[in-house]
């Protein structure tokens, strides 16, 4: 089941209500959302200082990232992204307190961490043009077989106009 093309961008309150509602329908969703989310009061400042570190080993920890990247300057946060079972997704992020430190870390983008060659890049912002259809698309999976498409459409309609709902 997927819902596509919500015609208006959703507010933070609407997104929170959707997550709360979906959590009732699908236990465990809230933990997945929260485990993969880091927030800050200034998104622009957050992303200007943020690096993506890819190809990490499964045993690399957030503390390891912090230790290695602190050689380039003061760090606000460093974390390895994990799945709902706590297993590393083999990438992470480091957020520096200033841009200069981030640029120093980028001078050598390939670093050996825990015996694995990694790649360091500037993290991309998740915020894009609201006209981008992918920002207005919600995919809902693992829905119970006895959940009717009309019931899901009715639920999500309370958050805005739905242009198209597609059931698989």
From TrEMBL:
Keywords attached to this entry = RNA-binding
Give the matching Gene3D superfamilies: 3.30.70.330
User: Which residue numbers delimit the RRM domain?
Assistant: 49-142
Keyword RNA-binding attached: yes
Question: Could you tell me which PROSITE patterns the record lists for this protein?
Answer: RRM
Q: What is this protein called?
A: UBP1-associated protein 2C-like
Family matches, as CDD domains: RRM_SF
Cited InterPro entries:
Nucleotide-bd_a/b_plait_sf, RBD_domain_sf, RNA-binding_reg, RRM_dom
Species of the source: Solanum pennellii
